[in-house]
Amino acid sequence: MTEETLVIQSDYITLGQLLKRAEIIPSGGMAKWYLAEYYVYVNGEEEDRRGRKLYAGDQVDLPNEEITLIISN
User: Fold this and answer.
1) Please, which residues have CB within 8 angstroms of residue 24's CB and are 6 or more apart in sequence?
2) 3-state SS assignment for residue 29
3) Residue 47: in which H helix or E strand, if any?
4) 8 with 71: CB under 8 angstroms?
């Protein structure tokens, strides 16, 4: 499993945007498909909403990846 830290310049990012920024999916339109096909966990709880807002310190666990968000203003 690889671990990655993603720094964003806003108050939050949606799960779909995160998947695209982390290059897990090639386009935002694939987020719904990805979340239906794979188990994704946000702070230890299974999540399937691409619009889920993620904030600083949230931990997102994907198949073979773990992403921690850092918010930078």
Assistant:
1) 34, 62, 65
2) helix
3) none
4) yes
Which helix H or strand E contains 18, and what residues bound it? helix 15-21
CA distance 69 to 7: 6
Q: Which residues pair with 2 in a beta bridge?
A: 65
Radius of gyration (C-alpha) of the chain in whole angstroms: 11
Q: What is the pLDDT along the chain (73 residues), one digit of tens a residue?
A: 567 777 888 889 999 999 998 888 999 889 999 999 999 999 999 999 999 999 888 888 888 777 777 656 5
Q: Among candidates 44, 50, 46, which has minimal Cα distance to 68?
A: 44
For the whole model, what pTM was predicted?
0.84
Instruction: Map tokens 């990012």 to a residue.
Output: 13
Residue 22: exposure state from Cβ atoms within 10 A (0-12, 13-18, ≥19): middle
